Amino acid sequence: MTKRLSEQESYFSMSEFLDSYYWASKDDSLGSLLGSVTLWSDDGELFDQAIAEDWHTFFGDVSNENHTVFESFQAVKQFVNEYLPDIAATTPVSGSLTYNIRIICEMTESQRNQEPVWQNWVAAVNWITNPNVVPVNESPFLKTGQSLPNPKEKGFRQNQFPIAKVLPAPRPEIPMGPSLEKVDLTQSYYAFVKFLQHYYQVSDDSELGNFLQQNRAISENNEEYRYWKGKFSRCSGNKKLLDILKAFLMVRDYFEIEFPDNALHTHPVRKLSCNLWKAAYLPHSQRIQTEVWQNWLTAVHQVIE
What's the predicted TM-score (pTM) here? Predict the structure, then answer.
């Protein structure tokens, strides 16, 4: 019989799954997130209602019915896309975990069964759905009748879901290409706008349309432009010109932060975010064959010609 998980069981499984990697690594990004994921009020509600509402959205987007183990993992993918984006600023273990979760969601069943991250997820689900395990306030989970352990005492977590035995495989370095043409700050931002305009024109997507209406102009009053300006300065090493591949990766990072692939965003935006992420990790000889790179190149040439 196929195991089915309720929304609450899926959430608790995710909490313990992430917690196991935190205790194995003391990763700062995971620790910060878990402060919101695991803090409960006396009436059984999460203190951070935004977390609860987002999880409800992600869970329901995958399926309105109880989930299979894999369906719940797909909801976890949406959650980490939102809260642990695969960008350089995310600490190594967290970023690698998000990368591995995404990759595993693309695998066949036989392939993912070989992956330690997937195995740890299945173990977390089995632990949460064990009838001898009950939730207690402020997470964690203990067997019936046991008291909350003192984290300062030796043996802490011995009655909880085990610490992850294997950390996620490190996310790969993004392959760079040969020396390419360069753009200045103004050209890079207008290329970004042109790039988004193409996708708005072919999709008539409201989220892209609203963004373009509010942020297409270069102005210090434009918060998105100020962010772009700072990112350009960091990526170029405070130089006036930036390689168009590095500018493309700026677009990819922007989507990771502002438009991640999850149900808080429209389908066209999610698809574009996913395709940018995939293209970033391809060897450059393969990257230049992708639709997103071709459209980026077109946008760049429209600006500089």
Answer: 0.89
